[in-house]
Amino acid sequence: MSVRTRFAPSPTGYLHIGGVRTALFNWLLARHYGGQFVLRIDDTDQERHVEKAVGMILDGFRWMGMDWDEGPEVGGSVGPYYQSQRGEKYKAAADKLVASGHVYRDYSTDVERAAGKKAADEARVAYRFRGTPPTPDEMARFDAEGRPYALRFQVPLGRTVVIHDLIKGDVEQKTDEMGDFVIVRAGGQPLYNFASVVDDADMAITHVVRAEEHLTNTFSQILVFQALEYELPAFAHVPYVAAPGSRKKLSKRDGAVGLDTYMGQGYLPAAMMNYLARIGWSFDATQEIFTRSELIEKFSLERVNSSPASHDPDKLFWIQGEWMKTLPLAEKVDAVIPFLRDAGLVGEEIHLNQKRKIAAVVSALGDRLKTYSDIITLGRYFFTETLTHDPDAVKKRLKKPGVPDLLRKLDLLLATVEPYEIATLETAMHQFAETNAIKMGDVVNPLRVATTGQGVGPGLYDCLEILGRESCRARIAGTLAMLEEARPA
RNA sequence: GGCCCCGUCGUCUAGCCUGGUCUAGGACACAUGCUUUUCACGCAUGCAACACGGGUUCAAAUCCCGUCGGGGUCACCA
Fold first, then answer.
1. pTM confidence score
2. What's the CA–C1' distance between A285 and B8, in Å?
3. Per-residue model confidence as pLDDT tens digits over A355-370
4. Most buried residue, A135, A153, A179, A391, by most Cβ within 10 Å?
5. Interatomic CA distance for residues A295 and A247, integer angstroms
6. Predicted ipTM?
7. Nucleic strand B near CB of residue A75 (< 7 Å)
8. Residue A52 to residue A54: CA distance in whole angstroms
9. With 0-12 CB in 10 A as exposed, 13-18 as middle and 19+ as buried, what is A64?
10. CA A284 – C1' B17 distance (Å)?
11. Catalytic amino acids of A?
């Protein structure tokens, strides 16, 4: 039997990277064994349903390169893949449980249960609902009154349920510690612990790999599996992802936790996949960088950690840098264009000369370009004549005696260099420093700030060439004017 | 609070199952140095951990117990 895994997100909002990691483990497991990865939308709770959420989830998966064999858009033989469309299956399963006496009608009211809960809290014990099936007479009477009822699973007492978890090991729970749980709400809506079991069985899921928060739910689910006489899948509960530098679960409050944030910043899917795989999983003592196919080849649940790991944006950033280094120039150039466009630095149409310039900038930026959005922060001045001077750089490199004079001389130099290109520029600059007995740093640095406005950046000669003679001279003039203006009267 | 899960450098982890090779290894981050016109890259060096307390043993990060800490769950949410 082939391995079938699934990821069943609830479409309540954005795609959390912790969720993406869980999905990744599922996907990796399926691909490793040549099985199928199923995407199912757990949207039983319509109240919490967020319209565009499914689209966001799908986009995130596509971006990551995690393809699903069955699910939304692609369909499959055991659909539908939206829980909201599987009502009949839940109905049939619920009827079966009613017939076999595993569930009973619970006519209790919200008020009654709230009281029971409150009493349990005060007694400092766990709240457990434990009811008795109503008699036919009671049922008739309540129905006549029009009282609604939920379907509750009657937990058999005196047993121990055992989960053979592939990550946590054997985990036990005495049924005496469990309360009877609702499987179908009054109104007919099936609940997670029931719907999930019906679907996992119906979809022939062999490995349920999901977040640790479901570990305790699993005891209830196993009972349902058994009552329905379904074969049990293997379970694997992955620890939660903690916030950076803490052991607390990562939440929206911790900042960038949505996959869309990283997509928007121009992270590479390969880097994200590499990073996510490494949080909570390792192959050996040393390997950090994994390609997608290596991950598929080397992934195993056995090596997933049983303890939580925290999100480490620094490490993500480093891995991203490593992946960026492997990319050919042309690919980076194409990827950077949308960012330039969004920032209004280039127009819709990219002409050949413009593309050459972008390529020159990306090339000059080299390893400094860690994410695609860096093109904006690091390369802005190449695409606009409006120079923004970094105050620190101005203070450090330009607010010195003799600098205006130096810049005027350099301007003259730039005016005469022929041809105007990296090699000649470099020779001219060295000669200039030598004849004037100035250190290279003292000529290069002021000139950098005067032409780019920044204290750091690519090699100066690259910058000068890309900018072009006229632009450089204009910028020097602008900088001179700025210095003049700033001078105290 | 009951029940369940977890606890190695700041962080990701190797080692733990099958005690000795662990004066606990690698990586990120950080610091310093080298390279360099700046930054980035690269190279080198440094910093830094077995939560705590008992026990078992010739020997414990590794096995057992307890404590503390973190997390989950106890919904007619997922």
1. 0.93
2. 14
3. 999 999 999 999 999 9
4. A153
5. 26
6. 0.94
7. no
8. 6
9. buried
10. 17
11. 252
